[in-house]
Amino acid sequence: MNYGEIKAAITNRSHRTDLASHLPEFIALAESEYNQRTNSTYDLTSGTDNTHNALSDMAPQVYIFGGLKELAVWTNDDTALQKYTALYERALAQAQYAEVVESGVLDEPMETELPLLTGSDILEGTP
To answer: The pTM is what?
Structure first.
């Protein structure tokens, strides 16, 4: 989903065409929060309406619900803020999981540097 489509989705869900000039700020705040929480460097808002990135393609709901959350903050709408915060948190978790899956980390065997102890009994306290 590109930047223009994300702005349209926020407008459609908010029913607030009067806030179109504020949408870039709301989207940038949502993106900034995502980047800070995930140590990412996504940058959608510096481009044109046709701009897209891996996050907007993989998980546009991060931008949509994050933008709606910021819109709710701006309009002092506590009910919408509660709803869109929950949806943003879910979208963030799903996007993080998708990034992990895409990275292939889940396919690697888990290793530990702990030594294997044989003959130990944790109930008895013997090593």
So the answer is: 0.80
